[in-house]
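Treating backbone geometry as a discrete language has practical consequences that deserve illustration. Part of our work consisted of pairing the sequence of a single chain with a tokenised description of its backbone. We regard such an encoding as a compact summary of how the chain folds. The amino acid sequence and the backbone structure tokens for this protein are reproduced below.
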Amino acid sequence: MASWRGGAPIELIRFAGANRLKVEIDFSAESGHHGPSVIEPYALRRTNDGDFVLLAVADRTDSHSYPVDRITGVRVIDTSFVPRFLIEF
């Protein structure tokens, strides 16, 4: 799979989103918190600063953006989801 900045396999995220599958990402937050999150992937966007962010919904929260360079691992889960928003992959 293709990687981008720091090794986050973006193609796995795109595949999961296009097929409405949840993804477990390992994410290192700016606050220092590190750990896995199960998400519904919806889109990749470029910020005004030129960085890429993943737009997603975490299992217990509303929509959230994850800077791609802080994603340290990705695993597609065999759990489908009903989209709450338009999927843009």
Notes: The first strand starts at residue 21 and ends at 28.
